[in-house]
């Protein structure tokens, strides 16, 4: 019988927008709203954010076929939405997103320093994303210039499908030569990030403050009254916990505490 793993965390796999860059995950939302507006179909920020984290064409599909948005589409376009419309929206989305990503590529405060510290523990740094390879290649150089560069950066293009499928995590494990899967922690700011990690059989950590669940820039969040900040963080934490996160933190800068807690659970014989 194979002995249960009881060693340290060997790798952390981080999401991009809302977790390591683009505080509030603003870039995808702005572009999604724009491409629908071009067809005369308004999409609220809540609707644009609901399925954040999946591959962008899948994200657009989920929005378009949601009953309320599909109803607005019928009113504006005078017919039911189709898969061809998804393809057309995605074709419009790509150039706008590539342009927008450049504006929203700032590394979130504390990420670079925290990653440097956990690397000193012998932990490798991987990443997964809802961005395509072309999109991620735009984000990688400015992130590196700001001190953040993962050891491995996988996109859905590389493995044939995005979240919630576990393939990107498996590709990270293969390329970084990490096993067992119980030695990996996935960190992200959306419920589908957590699903991805659970499907892969790794530990999961949700990020509440800096990501999609609150959806505000650092400046806009800081401008809120303390009570409103606390309420929004509590709601984000509850949603990520409900998705199955093993630990929930406010930002990647707080992840060392979560890693420590997971290592305690591993030593107790727990499995993700």
Write up this protein:
The chain is of the alpha/beta class and 272 residues long. The chain folds into 2 domains: 11-25 and 105-267, 3-Layer(aba) Sandwich (Rossmann fold), CATH 3.40.50; 27-103, DNA polymerase, domain 1. It is built from 13 helices and 5 strands. Strands 2-1-3-4-5 form a 5-stranded parallel sheet, sandwiched between helices. The longest helix has 21 residues, at 83-103.
- Alpha-carbon Rg, integer: 19 Å
Second-tier CATH architecture of the largest domain: 3-Layer(aba) Sandwich
Q: Residue-averaged pLDDT, rounded?
A: 95
Q: Order of strands across the biggest sheet? A: 2-1-3-4-5
Describe the biggest sheet? 5 strands, parallel
Number of strands: 5
Runs with pLDDT <50, length 5+? none
Question: How would you name the CATH homologous superfamily of the largest domain?
Answer: HAD superfamily/HAD-like
In short:
By secondary structure, the protein is α/β, with parallel strands linked by helices. It is built from 13 helices and 5 strands.
């Amino acid at each position: 019988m194979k002995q249960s793993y009881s060693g340290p965390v060997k790798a952390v796999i981080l999401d991009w927008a809302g977790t390591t860059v683009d505080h509030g995950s603003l870039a995808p939302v702005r572009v999604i709203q724009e491409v629908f507006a071009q067809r005369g179909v308004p999409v609220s920020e809540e609707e644009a954010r609901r399925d954040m984290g999946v591959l962008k064409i899948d994200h657009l599909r989920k929005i378009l076929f949601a009953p309320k948005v599909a109803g607005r589409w019928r009113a504006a376009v005078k017919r039911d939405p189709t898969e061809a419309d998804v393809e057309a929206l995605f074709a419009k989305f790509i150039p706008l997103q590539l342009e927008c990503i450049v504006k929203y590529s700032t590394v979130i405060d504390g990420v670079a320093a925290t990653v440097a510290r956990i690397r000193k523990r012998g932990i490798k740094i991987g990443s997964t994303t809802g961005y395509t390879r072309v999109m991620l290649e735009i984000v990688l150089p400015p992130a590196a210039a700001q001190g953040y560069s993962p050891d491995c950066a996988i996109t859905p293009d590389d493995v044939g499908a995005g979240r919630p499928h576990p393939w990107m995590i498996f590709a990270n494990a293969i390329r970084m030569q990490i096993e067992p899967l119980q030695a990996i922690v996935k960190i992200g700011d959306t419920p589908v990030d957590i699903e991805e990690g659970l499907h892969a059989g790794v530990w999961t950590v949700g990020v509440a403050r800096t990501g999609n669940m609150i959806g505000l820039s650092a400046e806009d969040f800081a401008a809120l009254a303390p009570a409103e900040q606390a309420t929004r963080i509590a709601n984000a934490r509850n949603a990520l916990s409900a998705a199955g996160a093993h630990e929930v933190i406010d930002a990647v800068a707080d992840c060392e505490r979560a890693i420590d807690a997971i290592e305690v659970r591993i030593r107790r014989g727990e499995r993700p």
